[in-house]
Amino acid sequence: MKIAKNPHTNPTSIKTRFALRFLRAINKLSNDNGTSPRPLNSADRRKRCRAIRAASYASMASAVGPNKAWSRAVLRKIRNRTKEMIKPRTRRGAARGSMNPRKELGLGQEKELRELVPGGEAMDFRRLLNETGHYIQCLRAQVQVMRKILHYSST
Amino acid sequence: MEPKVEATQPQFRSGISGPNPLEMGLGFDEIHGLISAAPGTGSSSFTALLELPPPQAVELLVKEDYPVKPMPPPIFPSNIALIDRASKFSVFASADNSPESTNILSASSSMKLDLVKQEPLDSDSHPNSSSPAVSNQSLKSNKRKEREKKVKESNKKSKKVVANEASEDSGEKLPYVHVRARRGQATDSHSLAERARREKINARMKLLQELVPGCNKISGTAMVLDEIINHVQALQRQVEFLSMRLAAVNPRIDFNLDALLAAEGGSSIDNSYPGTFAPSIWSDGQINGSRQHQYQQPWHFDGLHQPSWGREEDTSNFITPETSLLSYDSPANSASLHSSHLKMEL
């Protein structure tokens, strides 16, 4: 049974690692745009916003490590995008992806959950629930750290 | 025998009182006499169970794959309730062995428990018929009664799952799952396995319910799933919103990451996040200068800005060392090694 441990009570915890990576990424982003400190036109701002968001997901996924299916999926996506090549996906769970046809098909929620959680398509339902739990915890931590960064950078 | 049967019949129908061991033994003995004297059925395995010594009987009850002898329906002429129950478990009418073995066992166990429940009734009406010859058997049957009570309790429990569920992705490599069927439920292997699976899914749903705020009051998996989906979407929207704000605010951040790393030294950043974050950054803000340049230098990734990739090479080698990353890393090797060294010190 999934044990709902809090992954953020460790000093070298996911939160810490995420904060470090994210800060570094933001730093790099802002140093690369060193010339125009304030991207005034909206396209640049949107691009920067997207870059920051992608950096936050990437930092969180790399902080979590390869132990979780969703973090692996995120990293895979990023790597595919940077390398611009299609890697053969090792769909370990594809054979049993359709194992639970009977349960939880209330109005396609299961499908929706699979779309929300990265890497959710190739899992059976029980695994999907596990991953969702961990994903929710990490998302929460991500939001907290980002909020704190925002707070301390704007003061 | 017939009048004796009818005489004892109404006693079984009265209310259930608390068990008294001695009287239970007496009652049991009477029933035993009744059953063993029941004509025509010959060797029914149920009576064979009764004659067995107690531990073996319980063991037989508990084990699922007990090879059951062919069983003609046992006749309990004195107990209408039992007959009703026997008819409910219609397996008694069939002559099949193996698929019905679990059925028979569970049915027989439940019937036996009925027997146990009704023994005090009988015993209450015979308080004075105490014979020393019965005492031995009463002791034996008392032990058996207690074991049956234990079996009864385990019957009332939902499952006895022996499978190793500690690992999350042990989904399909479970060892043999021992499952006890609940009373009144189908016990063929398919529904058992399905029920086990459903229970695991329900357990996880319960954990998720605790995780998502406000989900505890909702019952029904569909609504809970809705809540979970909403929660995940809300969190993702928050991330997007925060990243937008960060993009607007951002340009003036010079965090001294080295100082951040060093200042952490054992204290968890999340526990004392509001406290240590500001001092660790702003107190060493002056030592910024040269250190910062090391990080800036040559990490020119085109797609995502991932200075963390270099670190990944050191710590967790799940990213196969790609040549592009390595080449980017080499000039900045000193910086990354330095920071990784600091990180290891934590």
From TrEMBL, chain A:
Please give the InterPro entries that the UniProt record associates with this protein.
Answer: IBH1-like, IBH1_N
Superkingdom of this entry's organism? Answer: Eukaryota
User: Which keywords fit this entry according to its UniProt record?
Assistant: Transcription, Transcription regulation
Can you supply a Gene Ontology BP term from the record? regulation of DNA-templated transcription
Q: Where is the IBH1-like N-terminal domain?
A: 12-81
Q: Which PANTHER family match?
A: TRANSCRIPTION FACTOR IBH1, TRANSCRIPTION FACTOR IBH1-LIKE 1
Q: What is this protein called?
A: IBH1-like N-terminal domain-containing protein
TrEMBL record, chain B:
Q: Where are the stretches annotated Disordered?
A: 118-169
Keyword Mitochondrion part of the UniProt annotation? no
**GO CC, alphabetical:** nucleus
Q: What Pfam families has UniProt attached to this entry?
A: HLH
Give the main location. nucleus
**Which stretches are tagged as biased composition: Polar residues?**
126-139
Q: Where in the cell is it found?
A: Nucleus
InterPro entries on file = bHLH_dom, bHLH_ZIP_TF, HLH_DNA-bd_sf
**Keyword ATP-binding appears in the UniProt entry:** no
This protein's source sits in the domain of life called: Eukaryota
Domain BHLH per the UniProt entry, residue ranges = 185-235
Keywords linked to the UniProt accession: Nucleus, Transcription, Transcription regulation
UniProt GO MF annotations: DNA-binding transcription factor activity; protein dimerization activity
**What is the name of the protein in this document?**
Transcription factor
Q: State the species of origin.
A: Sesamum angolense
What high-level taxonomic lineage is stated for the organism?
A: Eukaryota, Viridiplantae, Streptophyta, Embryophyta, Tracheophyta
